[in-house]
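Exercise 7b. C-alpha cells:
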C-alpha cells in the first residue's frame, strides 16, 4: 500500500462543516486565522483605483462578503474607504467575533450558507467578495451564489474572487486521488471532512463569464518554489458586472 504524504497525517476529526469553523474561531487548532485585511484584497482595491473606478469604494457604497469569517475584510473596507458592508458566514462563532469588532461600523452580519439567498436587495452592492468560500459549495450552490452576487451587485460593480487553482498543482492532484469527492474536480478535505472543489482556469473563466466581464487574473506560483512545498495554488479574478 502506498505511503500517504505528510500533509494528510492529522488527528482523527471529530467535527465537520460549521462545527469545525466554530471550533477554529473559538480555539484554533489547524488554521491561522488573521484579524488583518487580506493583502490580496488591498491589492485589488489599488487596481480598482488605478482603473479610475474608485467610485465603487466611496462613502455610502456597500460591499457584500460571502464567507466573511471574523469580518476582517469588511472592517478594513469600512475603515479605509468609509464603506458599508454585509457579511454572511456559516460559523456563528465567526459572526459573533465580527459583530464585536464592528460595533461602531455600518456593517450587518448574518449566520448562513453562502449558497443560500443573500441578505441584500437587488443592485445594492458596489463590491462583492468571494474569497476562499465558494469552493466549499456544491455545483448547484456555486451557481446559486454566482446568481445571488450578480443580483445584489449594481451595474458597474466589481466581484473579487479568490479560490484554489488546479492547473500545475501536484498537491491538489494528490488530494483528488487520495480523497475523491462527489463531483469531478472535488475531494473530501482530510481535516475538515467536507467536499472541496478545485477549479481549472478554463472552468472558472467559463463559469464567471456567464454573468460577468473578467477584467484581470492573477495566478500564484509559490507552489513551485522550494520553500513553497505543499503550498496550494490560487487564482484571483477581478470581474465587472456590465452596465
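Sequence design result:
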Amino acid at each position: 500500500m502506498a505511503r500517504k504524504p505528510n500533509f494528510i497525517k492529522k488527528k482523527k476529526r471529530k467535527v465537520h462543516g460549521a462545527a469545525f469553523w466554530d471550533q477554529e474561531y473559538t480555539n484554533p487548532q489547524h488554521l491561522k486565522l488573521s484579524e488583518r485585511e487580506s493583502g490580496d484584497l488591498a491589492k485589488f482595491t489599488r487596481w480598482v483605483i488605478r482603473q479610475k473606478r474608485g467610485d465603487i469604494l466611496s462613502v455610502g457604497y456597500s460591499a457584500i462578503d460571502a464567507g466573511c469569517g471574523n469580518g476582517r475584510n469588511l472592517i478594513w473596507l469600512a475603515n479605509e474607504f468609509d464603506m458599508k458592508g454585509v457579511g454572511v458566514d456559516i460559523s456563528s462563532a465567526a459572526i459573533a467575533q465580527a459583530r464585536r469588532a464592528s460595533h461602531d461600523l455600518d456593517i450587518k452580519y448574518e449566520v448562513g450558507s453562502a449558497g443560500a439567498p443573500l441578505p441584500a436587495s437587488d443592485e445594492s452592492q458596489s463590491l462583492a467578495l468571494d474569497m476562499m468560500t465558494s469552493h466549499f459549495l456544491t455545483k448547484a450552490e456555486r451557481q446559486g451564489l454566482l446568481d445571488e452576487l450578480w443580483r445584489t451587485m449594481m451595474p458597474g460593480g466589481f466581484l473579487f474572487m479568490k479560490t484554489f487553482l488546479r492547473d500545475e498543482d501536484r498537491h491538489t492532484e494528490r488530494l483528488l486521488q487520495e480523497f475523491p469527492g462527489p463531483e469531478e474536480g472535488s475531494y473530501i478535505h482530510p481535516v475538515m471532512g467536507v467536499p472541496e472543489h478545485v477549479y481549472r482556469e478554463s472552468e472558472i473563466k467559463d463559469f464567471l463569464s456567464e454573468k460577468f466581464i473578467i477584467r484581470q487574473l492573477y495566478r500564484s506560483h509559490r507552489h513551485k518554489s522550494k520553500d513553497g512545498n505543499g503550498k496550494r495554488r490560487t487564482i484571483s479574478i477581478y470581474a465587472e458586472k456590465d452596465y
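Instructor comment: Residues 122 and 152 are 4 Å apart (CA to CA). Confidence is low (pLDDT under 50) at residues 1-13.
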